[in-house]
Amino acid sequence: MRLTSEADWRCHLAITWTTPKPGEPAELCAVMTNWVPSAWVLKHYLRRIHIEEGFRDEKSGSFDLHHSHLRDPQRLDRLLLAMAVAVLWIYELGEQALREDKRADIDPAYERQLSVFQLAWRALRRAIACTAVPRCTLRLRPFHLAPVYRGAKC
């Protein structure tokens, strides 16, 4: 399969449906991989997709860690510790927005399409722009989330 105009890349396309759950319809999932398509490839990918979304949120979806260009391991450790605390706070803000039914103010879609992190990140940016920084308590509570609607994407 030709993926770019510059070169061919040998790959496989694996397609499946996720398992529907109560209140959560099945979703089409298409995975392009260099592995031979199999049930294991799809199961493996579906189990780790939330990890990839977390990396995206923390790397380029918010903090732009890749732009820090830090080379000293101790400085990077300190930055990662500060980011970990900030991530906890941001998740708390996202859960608070969902508990208080303020999702529609941030994510205007009919059904939730943003991760808790992205929901809170957008709310935080809006609050800072209005010079109203939310309070930080760092008290995460168990919270059951409605599924994220992704349409035909995984």
Can you put this structure into words, describing what you see?
With 154 residues, the protein is mainly alpha-helical. 43% of the residues lie in helices and 8% in strands. It contains 4 helices and 2 strands; from the N terminus they run ββαααα. The protein has a two-stranded antiparallel sheet. It starts with 11 loop residues before the first strand and ends in a 25-residue tail after the last helix. 14% of the residues are buried. The mean pLDDT is 76.
Please tag this protein with its features.
154 residues, mainly alpha, 4 helices, 43% helix, globular
* Radius of gyration (Å): 19 Å
Q: What is the CA–CA distance across the termini?
A: 21 Å
| Number of discrete helical segments | 4
Q: What is the β-strand count?
A: 2
Q: How is the largest sheet built, in terms of strand order?
A: 1-2
Contiguous runs where pLDDT drops below 50 for at least 5 residues:
none
**Helix/sheet category:** mainly alpha
Approximately how much helix is present in the residues?
Answer: 40-55%
Give the count of structural domains: 1
Main pleated-sheet profile? 2 strands, antiparallel
C-alpha geometry: globular
Mean pLDDT across the residues is: 76
